[in-house]
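Figure 6 in text form: structure in, sequence out.
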């Protein structure tokens, strides 16, 4: 049969090469080559793990080979410039150009379908503004003893362990040069974070790495030692992340190197576990008391939390706790379900959590409705790489933006989708010294700083064209979206935004999620409302 033809040919060629080699020694090479193929085909026939190999000896390997390079073939030869999988070629090219300080203008008109559904734009003004400096900053923790003036565009959480030592060095050196912050991720503060002296936001996850006791509980003493370091500007409690909310994580014992062991405060030879929930608090009120405690222990630095929105009543419980107790975080970072820099279970990365736009608006609206918005800053992260991404996100309620994968592109990431394999081809997402030591730290640090600077220059130009003088003037009315071939709406018209005080005095706005869950949310528990519990008890609705 034809499926055995290649295998049969390898046998015949092996025999022919052997006969020829007896007269002409040069043919021994053919014996080795064809004999190897014949041996592989024989193994294919005898093994029982793969039906495809048994049915198609040798031929099956061609299929596996082509399949293995399928992503690269699609990326370089098939995908359109605008296909976001997850980032388009055009988006990546924009980051590379700005990081390398190359010309980022485009000839011959836009490739975007301006009449396609979901096309977005910002209107320009006939009285454009003039902005002297693109160094847009906001003050976080104005009521703290040590407030922080942050850039509107910073490096999102990426831990040492998920990123290489060279990548961490380059990111922090770039942040130092550009005057913006570098979020440590939950893997704590490594020596590579400290090397260049760039501003740090210390993220504390459920594993309390860098501030834990031997039993994995929170350690005040170790927290204070790190938090009072002058390089640490803010502390961020990670409640959940967009990539795998509610899941937790494990760094296998084999990957816990001596450096990671020291940085995280975990023993070598044991799995490094990030539990799905925190042990230092279990209710919204306890979370706020924990935040107040961290603020005091840090010497008055801004303290906030990062979350990916899930069940709305849980976020409402936190908001009610703020209102009732008067204890407020200095900031909240909203992480979208668009995914992250590492790896996550398929179902989680595709179908768990609220996308960033809806999550951001829910947090913003809730704080506005409680008249707390002016006292709490909001950051947002989720597929942000360009100036328009920043403008749209700020218009929807954020005060600043973070980016992870955007800055990875600035380091040279090629979106090979190999972050979880330890075989990153650019030395960024790997602990293999044979790979990460090839990454040129000074060059990549320069690219990180240039990407930040040139993106903010582009943001300044957008604002000037729109007649605005600062990003904080952006609102949902400035961003337009095509919703049909003949209809255009501003984000302010498409989405329901609350007015100050809408949630006070027992009022419930005519917004579905508030109507369903606001009244039943509790500040003393994350548990679901009674109507949800009743639905869970059976399917007889």
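Output sequence:
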């Amino acid at each position: 049969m034809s499926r055995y033809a290649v295998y049969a040919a390898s046998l015949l060629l092996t025999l022919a090469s052997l006969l020829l080699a007896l007269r002409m020694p040069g043919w021994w090479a053919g014996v080795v080559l064809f004999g190897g193929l014949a041996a592989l085909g024989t193994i294919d026939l005898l093994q029982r793990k793969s039906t495809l190999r048994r049915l198609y000896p040798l031929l099956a390997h061609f299929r596996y080979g082509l399949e293995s390079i399928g992503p690269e073939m699609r990326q370089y030869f098939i995908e359109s410039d605008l296909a976001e999988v997850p980032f388009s070629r055009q988006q990546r090219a924009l980051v590379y150009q700005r990081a390398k300080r190359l010309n980022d203008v485009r000839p011959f008109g836009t490739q975007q379908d301006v009449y396609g559904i979901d096309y977005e734009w910002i209107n320009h003004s006939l009285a454009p503004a003039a902005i002297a400096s693109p160094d847009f900053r906001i003050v976080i923790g104005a009521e703290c003893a040590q407030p922080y003036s942050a850039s509107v565009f910073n490096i999102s959480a990426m831990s040492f362990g998920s990123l290489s030592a060279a990548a961490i060095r380059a990111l922090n050196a770039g942040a130092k040069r550009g005057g913006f912050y570098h979020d440590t991720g939950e893997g704590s503060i490594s020596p590579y974070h400290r090397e260049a002296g760039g501003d740090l936001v210390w993220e504390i996850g459920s594993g309390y790495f860098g501030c834990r006791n031997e039993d994995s509980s929170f350690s005040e003493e170790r927290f204070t030692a790190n938090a009072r370091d002058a390089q640490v500007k803010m502390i961020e409690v990670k409640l959940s992340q967009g990539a795998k909310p509610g899941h937790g994580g494990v760094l296998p014992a084999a990957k816990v190197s001596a450096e990671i062991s020291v940085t995280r405060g975990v023993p070598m030879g044991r799995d490094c576990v990030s539990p799905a929930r925190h042990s230092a608090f279990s209710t919204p009120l306890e979370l706020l008391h924990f935040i107040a405690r961290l603020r005091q222990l840090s010497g008055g630095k801004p303290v906030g939390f990062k979350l990916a929105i899930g069940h709305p009543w849980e976020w409402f419980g936190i908001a009610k706790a703020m209102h009732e107790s008067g204890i407020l975080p200095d900031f909240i970072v909203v992480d979208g379900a668009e995914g992250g820099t590492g790896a996550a279970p398929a179902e989680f990365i595709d179908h768990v959590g609220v996308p960033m736009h809806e999550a951001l608006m829910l947090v913003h609206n809730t704080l506005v409705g409680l008249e707390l918005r002016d006292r709490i800053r909001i950051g947002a992260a989720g597929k942000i790489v360009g100036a328009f991404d920043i403008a749209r996100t700020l218009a929807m309620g954020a005060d600043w933006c973070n980016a992870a994968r955007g800055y990875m592109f600035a380091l040279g990431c090629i979106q090979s989708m190999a972050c979880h394999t330890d075989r990153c081809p650019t030395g960024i997402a790997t602990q293999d010294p044979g790979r990460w030591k090839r990454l040129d730290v000074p060059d990549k640090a320069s690219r990180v700083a240039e990407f930040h600077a040139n993106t903010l220059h582009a943001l300044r130009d957008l604002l000037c064209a729109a007649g605005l003088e600062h990003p904080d003037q952006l609102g949902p009315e400035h961003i337009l979206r095509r919703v049909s071939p003949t209809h255009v709406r501003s984000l302010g018209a498409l989405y329901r935004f609350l007015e100050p005080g809408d949630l006070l005095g027992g009022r419930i706005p005519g917004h579905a999620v508030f109507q369903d869950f606001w009244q039943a949310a509790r500040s003393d528990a994350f548990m679901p409302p009674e109507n949800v519990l009743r639905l869970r008890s059976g399917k007889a609705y």
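Caption detail: The two ends are 59 Å apart (CA to CA).
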